[in-house]
Design goal:
Blueprint: H1 4-8, H2 22-160, H3 190-214
Helix pairs in contact: 2-3
């Protein structure tokens, strides 16, 4: 490619016949050199700018490739993280469900054990209450039997003693044997207990009335 210096230093041979004027040719060549030099410099600048643009484009392409690679890695990492999170969530849900089931089973077992203990204690209390009631009834029966025996003796004694106002000797009253009743095993209520005490104390009231009559 010609340079401005090549055009400026170009020498032409002179023709002997019908040649061009040297001054006009030199003037024209100077103008051509000036315009060509301007164009040459602009071309060099454009080449440099093109080289810079190409370098920047190469850098941008490299950066784009790095971004694409980074995006691919990030997408792959995100998918792995999502997959791991889903797996962990599923494991946590399964573990939580299993723990809840174990807690429920343990609570049911503990509730059954407490119910069984309470039932056993209740049965023991009922059995002890029945025993105490039977002992009480047996004790009251013994007292009633003893009181009826004593009442029979007192009645017989009173009947055998003659009264000063009587003209005829007194007729001995037949002695009655005390009736012994067997206590039942059913659980008595407060009413049955009161009736037992009342029945046990009624002969005493009769004996007191008879005593007052004889007096």
């Amino acid at each position: 490619m010609l340079t401005p210096m090549d055009i400026h230093n170009r020498d032409f041979k002179r023709a002997t016949i019908r040649g061009y004027k040297e001054d006009e040719v030199d003037e024209f060549l100077d103008r051509v050199v000036a315009d060509y030099e301007k164009l040459f410099r602009e071309n060099e600048k454009l080449k440099e700018q093109t080289n810079l643009n190409e370098k920047e484009i190469a850098q941008f392409r490299k950066l784009e490739k790095n971004l694409q690679d980074t995006l691919i890695v990030a997408q792959s990492t995100a998918e792995e993280v999502i997959s791991a999170a889903k797996k962990n969530a599923e494991e946590m849900r399964s573990n939580t469900k299993r723990e809840c089931q174990n807690i429920r089973e343990q609570a049911q077992i503990e509730a059954r054990r407490q119910i069984e203990d309470a039932t056993s204690k209740l049965r023991s209390i009922i059995a002890e209450y029945d025993r105490l009631v039977r002992d009480k009834n047996a004790f009251l029966l013994k007292i009633r039997t003893a009181l009826e025996s004593e009442l029979a003796v007192v009645t017989q004694t009173l009947n055998s003693i003659p009264h000063p106002d009587d003209t005829e000797p007194p007729v001995p009253m037949p002695t009655t044997e005390p009736t012994i009743t067997t206590p039942t095993t059913s659980t008595p209520t407060s009413t049955s207990t009161t009736s037992s005490v009342t029945s046990a104390s009624s002969p005493v009231n009769l004996s007191l009335e008879k005593t007052q009559v004889f007096k």
